[in-house]
Amino acid sequence: MTSIIxxxxxxxxxxxxxxxxERSWRMGECALHPFAIAALEQLRHDARAAxxxxxxxxxxxxxxxxxxxxxxxxxGLRPVLDAQERPMDIGTLSQRELVFxxxxxxxxxxxxxxxxxxxxxxxDAAAIPPGxxxxxxxxxxRGGGPFAPLHxxxxxxxxxxxxxxxxxPYTGAGCDVAPEPWHxxxxxxxxECQRAFxxxxxxxxxxxxxLALQPVIEDCCEEILGRYFRVPAGLYxxxxxxxxxxxVIT
Length: 250
Known about the structure:
Radius of gyration: 18 Å
Strand order of the largest sheet: 4-5-7-6
CATH topology: Muramoyl-pentapeptide Carboxypeptidase, domain 2
Distance between the termini: 20 Å
Structural class: alpha+beta
Largest sheet: 4 strands, antiparallel
Mean pLDDT: 94
Helix content: 25-40%
Low-confidence stretches: none
Number of helices: 10
């Protein structure tokens, strides 16, 4: 079976390649590509046997939604975090510095892996105490954090090639995005999307949308894509991806 993904879908401008997840698999509204859902079903089955209730808290995210997040951070309406997850004073930054500060934790609209339906943020619903406010922070996944046991289990599954094609694209190595242990990517789908990505189409989408900081982004677009978008091929290969399932129309 082959799935066809269009250029507009790569950029998050069209959502016809994703479907809603079952309510018991998610917290909030979440959609993913059917191929990622099939693999997630297997991962959830294994996780349940180990005592975890893996839920998706963020799946597909549109260009528009990513642009809202980006523009709010550029305007100081949402916090921009440093490498230690502390709010920064963006008033001290040049426009270029601000672009790269936002990119540490937030993908560029049109260049978010969440556009593809291959990527998701996950938590262990069984570990959430009553009244707990979810943060999606590194602290939650380490030491005594509520999701640390799940992530130790995921470490072992991913490391041994038994995560059904899922891997972590943001580990602190290979690109400059801050580590996001909760972010899982389905390698067979994501690899084909990354390979087919069109930087020129991205710049056109930014101009059409009037994205905040767009001139600065366009001036350093290749640097941004190299540092914050392209994940090394070795990470995909380590997920033991099967033959390509996806055809991208460009």
